[in-house]
Amino acid sequence: MLEQSNFGVEGENSKNKGLKLGWTLAAAKWGLSVAMCLLFGCYMAVLAAFPVGSLQSLKEKFVLSMVDTPFGKGGGMLLLFAAPLLLLSLLAIINLEISSRTSVFNKEKVKGRASMQNLPVITRGRMGIVSAAELLWWGKKLKRIGLHLGFIGIICLNLLFLPVSRGSVLLRTIDIPYEHAVKYHQWLGHFMMTLFTLHGLSYSIAWYSEDRLSKLFDWAPHKVANFAGVIALLAGVTMWITSIGWVRKKYFETFYWTHHLYIVFALFMTFHIGEVLFNVTFCGLFLFVLDRFLRFCQSRNSVGVLSTKLLPCGTFELTLAKSRGVKYHALSYIYLNIPEVSKLQWHPFSVASSPYDGDSWLKILIKPYGGWTLQLQDLVSAVVKLGRCPSNINAAIEGPYGHESNFFLQYEMLVLVAGGIGISPFVALLRDLLQRYQRGQPNLPSTVYLIWAVQKSEELQLLGLIPASTICPDYKLKFNLEVHAFVTRETSPFSLERGSETSDLHQHDRFKMPRILASLIDAEASKHPMSIVAGAGNNMWITACFLASLLGYIIVYLLINLFIVQPFEQGSVKDGNSSGSIPRWITGLFSVISMILGVVICGGSVVSLWNFLGRLHQNTSGAVEENVHLLSTSDNDGTAFTDECADRLLDPSNTYFGHRPNLRDLFDGYRKLQRPGANVGVLVSGPESLQISVAETCRAFNTVNYDSRRVAFSYHSVSFEL
């Protein structure tokens, strides 16, 4: 009895400690959030106040007070415009680390109307689908546009690179994945190039009226390098034109390659604005260069392809080896490069497996559409049909990227809408939910509806990749899963049934036996896992890379100033040359060189140590055992799924032919099944037309004002399009 009493006391103490730790983490997270909001507010206040003419004397005093520092006049700009965002990035890393220690299952289910961020307002137009929060934010921003077009454009340039830093800690902190942040990059790019174009036109017209148009070609050493600005503007306009929606979609290769002119644009813009104003753009460029360097380091690692499966619909599945330290979520995605196909082309693919499926691999589904995917299909088909093992198919990977949390778990009911191969992220999501239910995790969605539209019935076999009864044998008792499939280009289910009149006597009922044309497993590929060095990887190592790179920049800058700038200026003074200081554009070049060397040398040293220790602690024996399990669960003859479809998700009763889904009717039916005031999570993956239809349907059922009698539909897109 005494032992039982002691055990109860210890359990109660452990529970109290857990509660205290939870409150401590919550308080720390709240305090960090307040500090970050205050810091961001101060930064925005500086941006708003800087162009004000009445504060000119105060600005000059502040800039002159920094002249005696090693950074000179640029130190003031660095302190005003770069320091707040750099400190904000550091606080964001700490916030992410605290968030990773709290449990997502303690969060309450969302109720009431959809939030401003999840409420679509504009569904058609060049800006894509715009939420109420984004529209309100841009409305306020547009009201602050002043007369200083060039300076506002430079501020936009500082922010331009933040959304396209795929592993940005700032975006991860507010849980905006890269695929959603790209549209903010597009908005900023259009706005910035409009400002820079008007800036250039205003000067050109002024000089033309003065008969001094030749000043466009001036490259004064100690003044503004006009011709450098012209070159930067031409590079920017070229990128701008090729990024217009219809041009980008019709000539994507042109868009992709011309967008590499950002290097020319950023470099000559630095020559144009000089070192002082370069410090205004420093933070955005620094974080982008650091992220790009981490991506480069990760992509240098050759990743083995553990297995391949070819399906009759043309889609094929690749299983990629990964290190146990590489973490991802059910809705994550990766960038894939196959050197045997092209050493330069990278393509994004949604992960089609759950993190609970295995620690040493992840899966993706690829449907051939264009030249690159068709070439990859030919390569995979040749390797699989020859049965060549090892397959010698190596991949380069960047990622995984995506949402920082499993946001879909906060909803009591989910509606998943997919088009074609857009089912891939939902294959991962459903596998993840089944795994969580099998593990007995609490606070999970109780109802999931899947609406899937395909062109041909053979594509329906992709749902065979969700072995519901195998993962969670009693899943029907734990949550309600309903599937509605729509085959738009077939008018009858004849092709899905065995008919005596058909010439193919061996045609199978695809509802009963999904087929695999061929498959191949290469156990040797486990020796080449995905690198743990990733921009969205371990927070402690990211912090170390960030601080080391920043310190490296400061050291290199001071060394250049000590051994190049100061001796040159002192020699000019001795020679009596009053204008013999280093040209303005060269000091800007020194700043760029300092930033790049700081990231490559100091940040690279940390990355090398990170990679070395990761390989040292990697458990290859565990990976081999897991891959043996993967082999054992595969079919013996490589031609059919195992008994994954004993409990089928699709059958003739929930498959419809000859028409698209009527989303309004379906959503209205779901609404009637929910209690008043419920909030339904709507996730869509598919072409742009499908995203617009789903967004418009959500908007039709939502109200801006909260109504406790209505059911809200919160819109989330998990599609990726540039």
From TrEMBL:
UniProt domain FAD-binding FR-type: residue ranges: 298-407
A GO CC term assigned to this protein in UniProt: plasma membrane
Membrane topology: Multi-pass membrane protein
Keyword set, alphabetical order: Membrane, Oxidoreductase, Transmembrane, Transmembrane helix
A UniProt-annotated Pfam family: FAD_binding_8
Compartments reported by the entry: Membrane
Keyword Methyltransferase tagged: no
Main localization category: membrane
Name of this chain's protein: FAD-binding FR-type domain-containing protein
An example molecular function term from Gene Ontology annotations: ferric-chelate reductase activity
Residue ranges of the TM segments: 30-55, 75-98, 145-166, 187-207, 227-247, 259-290, 408-430, 540-565, 585-613
